[in-house]
Amino acid sequence: MTAQAPTAGLGVFALSIDCADPAPLAEFWGKVLDRPVSRGPTPENVVVEATDPAKGPLLFFNKVPEAKATKNRLHLDLLTENYDAEHDRLTALGAKPLNEISFPGAKWTTFADPEGNEFDLLTMQAK
User: Fold this and answer.
1) What are the contacts of 3-8 at 24+ separation with CB within 8 A?
2) CA 55 from centre of chain
3) Distance (Å) of CA 23 to CA 2, 29, 45
4) Is pLDDT of 6 > 60?
5) DSSP assignment of 28-43, as one string?
6) Distance (Å) of CA 66 to CA 1, 17, 39, 83, 98
7) Could you tell me if 102 and 83 are in contact, meaning their C-beta atoms sit under 8 angstroms apart?
8) How far apart, in whole angstroms, are the C-alpha atoms of residue 51 and residue 1?
């Protein structure tokens, strides 16, 4: 894992996600995003690599002792042109659909990952 700082300003290097069991959660997200998973700096950290920076930053999964207590204050929005196929794939990987919203121009489903962290699958629709 190497990183180069931007020449001016700031760049997003990684998103850190607290969890109870980093390895299986990182494996889930590695499959969701089709990215490799590697060990982090300690056994309690696992990394989903950013193989293409245009598709998002690294994801760090860090073991913490406390359980998730409330709704996420930050979540991932995943954009697709193949909404139905991706919806089915995410569900097969273990994501739990929580809510679906559709209106002219967009449709999305809020899911929970295996530890209950919310994320959205989004598609833009022709008006």
Assistant:
1) none
2) 11
3) 21, 10, 8
4) no
5) HHHHHHT--EEE-SST
6) 28, 13, 22, 34, 23
7) no
8) 10
Q: How far apart are CA 70 and CA 85, in angstroms?
A: 29
118: exposed, middle or buried (Cβ count in 10 Å: 0-12, 13-18, 19+): middle
Buried b (16+ CB within 10 A) or exposed e, 91-103: eeebbeeeeeeee
What residues contact 15, with CB distance under 8 A and at least 6 apart?
56, 57, 58, 59, 60, 74, 76
Q: What is the pLDDT of residues 36-79, one digit of tens each?
A: 999 877 878 999 999 887 888 999 999 998 888 887 888 999 99
Concatenated DSSP letters of 19-74: ES-HHHHHHHHHHHHT--EEE-SSTTEEEE--SSGGG--EEEEEE-SSPP-S--SS
Distance, CA of 29 to CA of 5 (rounded, Å): 25
pLDDT for res 26 = 95
d(CA 112, CA 120): 9
Chain centroid to CA 117: 9
